[in-house]
Automatic annotation (TrEMBL):
Segments crossing the lipid bilayer: 18-37, 43-69, 81-99, 162-180, 227-246, 252-278, 290-308, 371-387, 399-418
GO cellular component, one term: endoplasmic reticulum membrane
Similarity comment: family membership: Belongs to the fatty acid desaturase type 1 family.
Membrane topology: Multi-pass membrane protein
Protein name in UniProt: Uncharacterized protein
Length: 536
């Protein structure tokens, strides 16, 4: 920066303060969520929140503003300590910095050097000036402000020195603890600056979890918000929008790398968790299983074990109230609500009835389950975000938001479509009751969604359409060529027709008729063209 003779000659610009941007985004997103939770809170919590807001504002108005910034009165040590605590409750940083910026605002009022220039928009004053940091000559401007009187005030300097500890105590711990401790309410998140999030009482929560029924199939479960996942989804979508605006600054290499990671993550779900482990549509060599496990870790979708368990539960109770991804509900419910809520009631009993013995015998899956946290940090966060900055000079901000956030968000929704697709494209699982065209479409595998729920173990049954010619099917056939995969299960339309006829005669489901083993073409003896990388 050019050195000028006088501090008043300095001009400064502003750049985003990443930490404060994230704080503001989180506060506003969680604030919206808190509004929906207020109906569950007691009147005492509401009154206590208003009282804390008043104390925080008092600390700023009577304390930082009138007492310390403008010296409009003098105060006894006890009052100064009280006002300092009130300012800590507000969570607005140190009194020293607040006074410094406010005096700077008065000194250069209405000029380009005013950090809160009233000639700019309300949006700029209320938001942008708070989430950006001045750069250029701003430090020199601050040095020209007389702060000697404030520096002589022991209360202010004590708060400046121990701000972090005081903030944690007075802005976080004490306000959040009081409603839960004094009114014996179970809290689900923080109350901060008017953001109230109180869950139902312990008795209400217990009534959901203590229901005991005789048989797993008799269990009915409801869903309650999973606060951690709700916050994750809200933040991902808000930051994902911000990432879209940053894409214009990113290099083409970052864009290509992001698409590649999305493909790897989806491959880990489709070829790995879905077709290999959930439906056993083929067997895989240890090297392929490790590769697919890493791909699934890149997607960041939790453990393979839990994904397979919920997907098998989805197939077992397809279209019923026990189906965690019931296609009779809305797309919004399938794609979002089913992901951000946790089942309560009899859900654990339902899961116990699902046979997971084959998955538990797979060392790769159980390794990923045991060390998921470490693998997630490495493959879903550190390596993807580090690569653009390390190898082609991408800025850390673009790496975090485009590769870390936006890529993760897109992958999340694509993998969620595996269950949502039955709603989007339609599925008539009980096809024996459908018309002739529906039967023909299923036999010819044009109604690929219904076909998947009839024969889920067919390795060519694509998650998103185009039976047999999709990227995942081609990948599996390629792995078979190089001896990494074998025992690929599939069948032809003639066999499906026979199974449908048997179903009509025996009154068994088509799936049960197929599952006796006589129809599954493991060796491709009836379907040799599946060996080609692209089917004719």
């Amino acid at each position: 920066m050019a050195a000028l003779k006088d501090a008043t000659d300095y001009k400064f610009s502003r750049e985003n303060n990443f930490v404060v941007v994230m704080l503001y985004l989180n506060l506003h997103v969680m604030g919206v969520y808190a509004l929906f939770l207020m109906k569950n809170a007691t009147i005492y919590t509401f009154i206590f929140g208003l009282f804390l807001i008043w104390l925080g504002v008092l600390g700023a108005t009577a304390g930082a503003h009138r007492l310390w910034a403008h010296k409009s009165y003098t105060a006894d040590i006890k009052l100064r300590i009280f006002l300092m605590i009130c300012f800590c409750i507000s969570g607005q940083g140190t009194i020293y910095n607040w006074v410094l910026e406010h005096r700077l605002h008065h000194k250069y009022f209405g000029t380009k050097k005013d950090p809160f220039n009233h000639n700019k928009s309300i949006w700029n004053l209320q938001i942008l000036s708070r989430i950006t940091r001045p750069v250029g000559g701003y430090d020199k401007l601050k040095e020209a402000v007389d702060m000697s009187d404030v520096e002589e005030d022991g209360v202010v300097m004590f708060q400046k020195k121990y701000f972090a500890v005081l903030y944690i105590i007075f802005a976080l711990l004490l306000p959040v603890n009081a409603p839960a401790d004094l009114t014996k309410i179970k809290f689900s998140t923080t109350y901060q600056r008017g953001l109230v999030t109180i869950s139902n009482s312990l008795d209400t929560a217990r009534s959901h979890t203590m229901a005991a029924l005789k048989d797993a199939t008799d269990y009915k479960f409801s869903r309650e918000n999973n606060f951690v996942v709700v916050m994750l989804y809200l933040n991902l979508h808000v930051m994902g929008v911000y990432a879209l605006f940053l894409m214009k600054n990113a290099t083409i290499y970052t864009f290509i790398f992001g698409l590649f990671l999305i493909w790897l993550g989806v491959l880990g779900a489709t070829a790995g968790a879905h077709r290999l482990w959930a439906h056993k549509s083929y067997t895989a060599d240890i090297k392929l299983r490790i590769f697919l496990m890493i791909c699934f870790c890149i997607s960041g979708q939790g453990t393979i074990y839990n994904w397979v368990l919920e997907h098998r539960l989805h197939h077992k109770y397809f279209g019923t109230k026990k189906d965690p991804f019931n296609h009779n509900k809305s797309i919004w419910n399938l794609q979002i609500l089913s992901r951000i809520t946790r089942p309560v009631g009899g859900y654990d009993k339902l899961k116990e009835a699902v046979d997971m013995s084959d998955v538990e015998e797979d060392g790769v899956v159980m390794f990923q389950k045991k060390y998921f946290a470490v693998l997630y940090i490495i493959f879903a966060l550190l390596l993807p975000v580090n690569a653009p900055a390390e190898y082609w000079g991408e800025s850390l901000r673009e790496s975090i938001f485009i590769i870390g956030i936006l890529r993760y968000l897109i992958t999340l929704h694509l993998i969620s479509l595996i269950e949502t697709s039955s709603k989007i494209w339609g599925c008539s699982y009980n096809i024996e009751n459908d018309n002739d065209k529906k039967l023909v479409d299923t036999i010819e595998k044009m109604d690929w969604m219904t076909y998947h729920y009839i024969a889920p173990w067919d390795y060519q049954s694509n998650e998103f359409g185009f039976y047999g010619n999709d990227v995942t099917s081609v990948f599996i056939r390629l792995c078979e060529r190089i001896k990494l995969a074998n025992s690929l299960k599939t069948m032809d339309g003639h066999i499906i027709g026979q199974a449908i006829q048997m179903s009509m005669v025996t009154n068994k489901s088509v799936t049960d008729c197929l599952n006796d083993g006589q129809f599954i073409d493991v060796g491709h003896t009836k379907f040799q063209q599946s060996h080609s990388l692209i089917r004719s």
